Amino acid sequence: IGNMLKCYQSLMLIIPFEMADIFYFCRRGVESIVDDEVTKRFSAQELETWNLLTRSHYNFRHISLRLTVLWGLGVLIRYGILLPLRVTLAATGISLILVLTTLVGFLPSRELRFFLTEKVHVMCYRICVRSLTAMITYHNRENKPKNGGICVANHTTPIDVIILANDGCYSLIGQAHRGLLGMVQRAMVKSSPHIWFDRSEVKDRHLVAKRLSDHVADKTKQPILIFPEGTCINNTSVMMFKKGSFEIGCTVYPVAIKYDPLFGDAFWNSSKFGMVNYLLRMMSSWAIVCSVWYLPPMNREEGEDAVQFANRVKAAIAAQGGLVDLIWDGGLKRAKVKDAFKEEQQKLYSKVLVGEQEQGDNKSSEENPEEDKSYHGSANGQ
Amino acid sequence: MGSRASTLLREEEIEEIKKETGFSHSQITRLYSRFTSLDKGENGTLSREDFQRIPELAINPLGDRIINAFFPEGEDQVNFRGFMRTLAHFRPIEDNEKNKNAAASEPLNSRTNKLLFAFRLYDLDRDDKISRDELLQVLRMMVGVNISDEQLGSIADRTIQEADTNGDNSISFNEFIKVLEKVDVEQKMSIRFLH
């Protein structure tokens, strides 16, 4: 009994559990229920003042008749004048891209093809930008992405592509779609090297990496435009960058895009609106106002792995755009968080309870050999 | 576009919640917009899945127990009143409330009610006693696979031994209060609600 008491005492020294320990988890849990960093990134951000659009009408209540009249006027202007004009422009832009890229694709001479492709693309993107009434301010254009590199940017909406392509030629990479978008994709490929993947190929990371490296190895090809977050975020933060594009080993040109939501929120909430619905909403807002910053090119440094490189680029983009830098995965929009993270938390708490491995094992070894072995086992499993 | 307008909070409801929980008007409207943003089904109630969609809560080892605390016995949905009632436990105790006499019914965020909330996290079968088995299960949730059954058992035994005064080998609510009498419960179980 004396030995058992000694054993008990030694356990008390190294295992300081208290019933109050639960308070920490409890409070953290309720704090995250009241406000958390992740879920609010997947819906449009709230505005400080109302911009006369019902869609931004979250908590604002009816204030005065005059405001309602103003709103009514706004509706007339937006839906009666702006929307039809913009739709016409957009239709023109898209048909032009289809027709002209196909025509250019027929030309025999490669140099002529490249030359004309650039002109055609820039013209069509300019039309599309006007159709959305996007007021874009480009900063630091001396850092514009060059051939043989990858351009990475934070992702808020598919319109990001139009905004960037307005100022330069990029090769796009993405999933091959069906329907109108698929037609546009196939037309674009005829005159310049874009990379479209089938659904099945997307899963094959080696295939993706190979096609990417082949493209950047060819210095005559335009820089590839990649959105490493993998999904649209609401432009208040930058979420985890997938490391695939950072493993290739070429120069990365980071670009930060920040939208001003006051004239129209550009975020595409894909679970709420389909593409056509979204475009109509864009075209019936006041305008899309955004700033684009071209950041100095970055290369992977010695001793840095792809994940660290990706985080470094992400931090630079977040700092420039005034966005919150998060480590959470944008995929949490649709998927559940991995159990591994919960196991991390449990491991941390266990460390608090049992302290370092060296302190605990020699005292109780005579009395409880099985216990000691299983403790070693769980510690070695780390 | 119009669904939000139909679920706006009425003034009378805000007043009732204010009286019951002690939150201010702006805190209630702010928490209401949080409630609606979590309510993906837009039916005015939250289910367990709605809570589990919060990543920071999903990785909390006691996440499921905390979520459970919002749902009354046997129910799967919680409405805004229930949501606020549970959150009210975490409202900080203001100075002017400390001296109030317990003439009216005890406020939801009193020290006793905060302790009751924590007690219920341990008490899995809601029988007002924390048995050794329940304590073990909660401990297992907190440490995962990193500590052996035997060690966990000794922790549980020692904890019950220290707390149990009437010898029934389980911890009642009064024994729980006694064990934690030196702990600053008011501070540990309060969170800041923005105004």
Automatic annotation (TrEMBL), chain A:
GO BP term, example: phospholipid biosynthetic process
Ranges where the Phospholipid/glycerol acyltransferase domain occurs: 149-260
Annotated Basic and acidic residues bias: 360-375
Family annotation (InterPro entries): LPCAT1-like, Plipid/glycerol_acylTrfase
Compartments reported by the entry: Membrane
Pathway stated in the Swiss-Prot or TrEMBL entry: Lipid metabolism; Phospholipid metabolism
Keyword Manganese part of the UniProt annotation: no
CDD domains to which the protein is assigned, alphabetical: LPLAT_LPCAT1-like
Superkingdom as given in the UniProt entry: Eukaryota
Name of the protein in its database record: Glycerol-3-phosphate acyltransferase 4
Gene label: GPAT4
Automatic annotation (TrEMBL), chain B:
Gene Ontology CC, one term: plasma membrane
Gene Ontology BP term (one): protein transport
CDD domains from the UniProt entry: EFh
SMART domains named among the record's database cross-references: EFh
EF-hand domain sequence ranges: 26-61, 110-145, 151-186
GO molecular-function terms, A-Z: calcium ion binding
Residues that span the membrane, as ranges: none
Keyword Phosphoprotein assigned: yes
Coiled-coil features, chain-numbered ranges: none
Location in or out of the cell: Cell membrane; Cytoplasm; Nucleus
Domain of life assignment: Eukaryota
Pfam families: EF-hand_7
Keyword annotations: Calcium, Cell membrane, Cytoplasm, Lipoprotein, Membrane, Metal-binding, Myristate, Nucleus, Phosphoprotein, Protein transport, Repeat, Transport
Family membership noted in the UniProt record: Belongs to the calcineurin regulatory subunit family. CHP subfamily.
Listed PANTHER family: EG:114D9.1 PROTEIN-RELATED
Record-given protein name: Calcineurin B-like proteinous protein 1
Organism: Larimichthys crocea
